[in-house]
Amino acid sequence: MLKNPVIILVSPQLGENIGACARAMKNFGLNVLRIVSPRDGWPNKKACSAAVGAVDLIESAQIYDNLKDAVADLEFIYATTCIARTMNKEYVLSKELHRNFNYKIKTGILFGRENCGLTNKEITFANKIITIETDPNFASLNIAQAVLVVCYEIFKSVTRPDLSNIQDLATKEEIGFFYDHLLNMLDNANFFKIYEKKEAMQRNILNIFSRIDKLSKSEVQTLRGIIKALEPKVDNKPL
Q1: Contact call for residues 223 and 208 (beta carbons, < 8 A)
Q2: Domains in the chain, ordered, with CATH?
Q3: Is residue 117 left, alpha or beta, with left meaning phi > 0 and alpha meaning psi from -120 to 50?
Q4: Taking the model in full, what pTM does it have?
Q5: Which tens digit of pLDDT belongs to each residue from 84-107?
Q6: Residue 156: what are its φ and ψ, rounded to 5°?
Q7: d(CA 16, CA 25)
Q8: Rounded-to-integer distance, Cα 70 and Cα 73, Å
């Protein structure tokens, strides 16, 4: 069984679909399931019924109230969507995933709601986007079908660790602290002059940094040091 990647279901609606996702994961050797805000609460008897032989994945599933906490300890994130998004992120076709995937870093794969998928804000957490090859005239898949395809493609990957020598990568939590530091300083400097554009500008800034695949812990510390060095100095000299 594989502990990497982590499969993350964001606000799934039906227990039956959660169970079917767990079954698809176990078919291809994945065993870490995280669920963010399941609509019908947790635990869910229908999820257990649908999981059949994968009930252990349901019982060990980690439940989160929000996506930020669900990805905090991860180093790399993929988001799945069949809809073209207006954001500058690299797309990976599912058939190429086994060549793109790196087992050496702790990775999460996001799957959205059955009726509308992931929001643009949720996709900003991702470094890259996975798109499953389907007929463009009918691209919508059931969430369990999508999980099955992606898990299969990862299962085809060479499980031998990457031989490249890299530093310890920053977790999403550490990168999140950097984002908060940066956005707070920009806010204090009145960078976001037009309130109506503030959210879009912040999203663009986060997307710029999320395209960097391998930010190390020391690099994030350096970035935070740069921001701190640029903060205005307070003159405490007596008058």
Answers
A1: no
A2: 6-155 (3.40.1280.10), 172-230 (no CATH)
A3: left
A4: 0.79
A5: 777 888 999 999 998 888 888 999
A6: -75, -10
A7: 14
A8: 8
